[in-house]
């Protein structure tokens, strides 16, 4: 990378503002990417554009993976099983020290929301590109996050403030909230440890099974209860904060199109959110982030009900799969921004600088078979063609003759389009999906095309009940 000689007046001013005069904070020299697949590739590219060297870590199953080949250096960290490679904190930290990297980008999944890992990085004096271990821990506990947000004046779904541990106490609280209610596990995620209860008769049974699922899955019996919101939209706001207390929001993503709590397609902006509501929700998202002194990229998830009331649901303390739709409508590079703020630089934009333009849609193309209940189907790619053209982006790690290993997430590629409005973005995505060729393995690309061609989708009739209502054959 290029090292600047001397310090300019402009730089001096920014150090003064940051209270860092005399201790120039250097941009990272080398970043280790503790992930694989398309996000590892995405991060390597951002680093290269910034003049930062990259280290890939890879498992024995990923010797021929694109991230392994694209990085400046690569180091094998263990066998195919994630538990022995991409989730092995000691091996990753050892690799980081051996390769002399000064920061780790965790991507999403794997160790990205592991507070212990972030803490170990802090101890080893390696910069973790993400929020502090303390915040990851705090927001990972959903009932605590809920309480924190209530106290910060952020609207939450009516429900409990303190955690609930027994069905008896739960029933008492559910009666005051009013049925139907949603019983949720504090450590839950992806719909695990979650049950609807429609009346006092079915409450205890549902509470107990949700709690048992949570004990089994997360070794945690902490539950909370919310009023059940019928067919809400899943609306999430991208926020980013720096080490100087600045936080901005970058608008919303509508992620309501989900199948079994897996996001299928995401878009930005949301068609039913007015400029005024966006300002209100955005301000709320910034208030939520500031309440916990958040730094780096994060997402505030809201439920939006039919009357346009919005409620805080969870905070995700990582960069997310769907971040490209935000990049396309704001023109920002979120990975670069994450790296800059982690190195101590102030945010490159203020709230007034953020302008949402046009409409972006992302389709997640997975190696799975829709006619076999979306069973993952890894294998060798025999023929491949990516769409291109104006406003088309493909984020992927796959290539011709690549063997998709069976050990990891089945996402192959993110097809992301940007159009002047929603109609144009839909047409662009339909056209791009039509051009996409992936042969040798099954994918959900045709299912994506069916969604985009559905009149209800085109009319913007998209809440969390969309797939179960219009594609019931895919929800068994
Ligand atoms: C809810 C809800 C309705 N009311 N909470 C599902 C996963 C978890 N993160 C939260 N989820 C929900 N919480 C209350 N009080 C409906 C859902 C929900 C959902 C949320 C987002 C996207 C898709 C969903 C599909 C079914 C249910």
Question: How would you characterize this protein structure?
Answer:
With 476 residues, the chain is of the alpha+beta class. It has three domains: 12-129, Rossmann fold (3-Layer(aba) Sandwich); 158-227, ATP-grasp fold, A domain (Dna Ligase, domain 1), CATH 3.30.1490.20; 233-474, D-amino Acid Aminotransferase, Chain A, domain 1, CATH 3.30.470.20. Helices cover 34% and strands 26% of the residues. The chain contains 16 helices and 22 strands. Strands 13-12-9-10-11-14-21-19 form an eight-stranded antiparallel sheet, sandwiched between helices. The chain has a five-stranded parallel sheet with strand order 3-2-1-4-5. A three-stranded antiparallel sheet has the order 7-6-8. The termini are far apart. Mean pLDDT is 94; it is low at 1-23. Ligand MV4 binds next to strand 8 and strand 13.
Task: Please describe the topology of this protein.
Blueprint: H1 9-17, E1 30-33, H2 37-50, E2 53-59, H3 66-70, E3 73-78, H4 89-98, E4 103-105, H5 115-123, E5 127-128, H6 133-140, H7 142-151, H8 167-177, E6 181-189, E7 192-197, H9 200-218, E8 223-227, E9 233-241, E10 247-259, E11 262-268, H10 275-291, E12 296-304, E13 310-316, H11 323-330, H12 334-342, E14 359-366, E15 368-369, E16 375-376, E17 379-380, E18 383-385, E19 392-396, E20 403-404, E21 411-419, H13 422-435, E22 437-439, H14 445-453, H15 455-458, H16 466-470
Parallel strand pairs: 1-2, 1-4, 2-3, 4-5
Antiparallel strand pairs: 6-7, 6-8, 9-10, 9-12, 10-11, 11-14, 12-13, 14-21, 15-16, 17-20, 18-22, 19-21
Bound molecules: ligand MV4.
